[in-house]
Hints:
Layout: E1 3-6, E2 9-15, E3 22-26, H1 37-43, E4 48-52, H2 70-83, E5 89-94, H3 96-107, E6 112-118, H4 130-143
Parallel strand pairs: 3-4, 3-5, 5-6
Antiparallel strand pairs: 1-2, 2-4
Amino acid sequence: MPSVKNGQIEIYYEDTGSDLPVIIFSHGLLMDHDMFAPQVAALKDRYRCISWDERGHGRTARDTLEPFSYYDSADDLAAVLRHAGVERAVLVGMSQGGYLSLRCALTHPSLVRALILIDTQAEIEDKTKTPAYEKMIGDWAKNGLSD
Length: 147
């Protein structure tokens, strides 16, 4: 199981490992690296595919999680790429994964070959959704991420 430490966070990732062009997949909120298993299976003969579990998700640090931003998650993505020896990659992000992929492109542009953004946006979330997100995040912080 490959992993990389970024600060206090141990980040889990899976890597098909080859010398092919690299695609790294970043999942949506409440999901994990497995959401892209069909895409990895379909593309692994033509691309080196990396999928990872973002902070608080899957096999990446779920027990004690300090507050963090999408820029922290962008740094996590960059840490995975560097640990895997990747100089440039296509960043594929769905929803939350798109948010952090955009921020990675802004803060680590030399790592980015291209962006594929799925069901995401660049702007701040609609303010009418904020109370529901705050409740969910509060529950997450207090009780951990539920199944």
